[in-house]
Please model this.
Amino acid sequence: MTYLQRAKDVFTIEIAALQAVQARLDESFDQAVGILVESLGKRGKIVVAGIGKSGTIGRKIAATLSSTGSTAVVLDPVDALHGDLGILDELDILLALSYSGESEELVHLLPAVKRFGTRIIALTAGSKSTLARHADVVLNCTVPKEACTFNLAPTSSTTATLVMGDALAMAVMDAQGFKLKDFAQRHPSGSIGRSMLVTVGDIMRRGDRNAIAPEIQTVKEALIAMTRAKSGSVAVVDRRGKLVGVFTDGDLRR
Model:
């Protein structure tokens, strides 16, 4: 098998995994969305926890939730058992990720979470696992097989968990009526923020930096006004101060 053939094989396996998880979606998904929306409506937050590769996927899910209007934080299960559990509140929701549902560090955390009165949504393949037994809602992320040659390295399973997290984030976003302007406010930097937040008023010239010349002035006088304002153009106005045209240094050269 060539490298290219292997790559296509990985794509085929992971696409099949997503289709399998999609086919099992049921009312549990609606329940999970309802719980999340209810919690967020009461000013609760979504606390995402996972170990290893699940923890890595969890961080991405939390980032997606936060950027689309759902307050979300990441909780490391190990640190949680040594004081960080204080981040939890009874209004919060724990989004727990473990493919087997038996990750030791996460399992040790669950009884303490339940004592807080915090509800748990589990993303797991272990429908009868310890995690599933503690969860209020279980979202089944079982995949037919991993893309790994030995069917061991988390590949298809992490992809399926990530997509399930994306599906939750998008459904909750829609349920909350998240708008484009809300998205822009959470992305103030970069091309997204500049294109959606920056207005003409933010970058326009004002005062001494705005060159203005009455239409009866000579070109020489207009150039002086342009130079004084350190501008490449001058706004030409009539006797009432209304804009009637624009004259640029390029116009002069031409």
User: Anything to note?
Assistant: The chain has a mean pLDDT of 93.
